[in-house]
Amino acid sequence: MNKLKASLLLLLFFYVHILSSEFYIDDELINRVEKEYGIHAKRRFLALQDMLNELKNKSDLEKLEGVNNFFNDVRYASDQKVYNQSDYWATPWEFLGKDMGDCEDYVISKYFILKHLGVDYKKLYFTYVRSSNFKEPHMVLTYFETPRSEPLILDNNNRKIFIASQRQDLTPIYNFNGDVLNKVGVNNEKSHKKWDELKLNMQRKKI
After folding, report:
1. Helix boundaries (H) for 38-166
2. Which end of the chain is more exposed for a tag (fewer CB within 10 A), N or C?
3. Is residue 122 a contact partner of residue 180, using CB atoms and an 8 Å limit?
4. Which of 66, 40, 50, 64 is nearest to 152 (CA)?
5. What is the pLDDT tens value at each position of the chain, 207 positions in all?
6. How much is the pTM?
7. Among 91, 112, 45, 37, which residue's Cα sits nearest to residue 202?
8. Cα gap 165→163, rounded to integer Å
């Protein structure tokens, strides 16, 4: 009976751990990815796992740089091309599995991986911007060391992380973080809807 209780407690601990960590990689997931996308996708996920192991005890800045560089290797492609939709927020598993996505997908993956690595999610924001280099709206991930700090910009169009004042090509529109429901500037219900859909797909481990 004691062994049974111990086994049940271990399973319960594992289940709670999985629920508490929105992003994770295990053998079952990797097998699903390989079946859906092939051996090259499997290798990308194994490389991601290696990066997570390498960064887990690093500083926030090192985590930001490592995650930014990793995901910026993924190819850019529009939602229309990848999903045949005008606007779709992909899970990190979909993004890395397909090895392509648009600016929101880079931000989503960087956000959840950094959160998984222990970076305080309250410091991370989905930031809508206008770019002088592109005609269409753009999204970047921003990191605020403190609420009053000038944010760092993680952008799929630029490998180097700059402070906001050094990105004269970007004009901020508003910040969004569904985990804290903190908006600046405008009330954008579309973002909340997309966030709710994304969270549901994350719970389903959609690849």
Report:
1. 39-55, 60-71, 79-83, 92-98, 103-116
2. N
3. yes
4. 64
5. 455 554 444 443 334 344 445 666 888 999 999 999 999 999 999 999 999 999 999 999 999 999 999 999 999 999 999 999 999 999 999 999 999 999 999 999 999 999 999 999 999 999 999 999 887 789 999 999 999 999 999 999 998 999 999 999 999 999 999 887 644 444 556 677 899 999 999 988 999
6. 0.86
7. 91
8. 6
89's enclosing H/E stretch is none
Q: Going from the N-terminus, what domains does the chain have, and what CATH number goes with each? A: 2-203 (3.10.620.30)
> Which residues does residue 126 pair with via DSSP β-bridges, in sequence order?
141, 176
Dig out the tokens for 46 from the structure: 């194994």
User: Which residue type does 75 have?
Assistant: R
CA angle 82, 121, 87 (to 5 degrees): 20
Q: What is the 3-state secondary structure (H, E, C) of 159-198?
A: EEEEEHHHCCCEEEEEEEECCCCEECCCCCHHHHHHHHHH
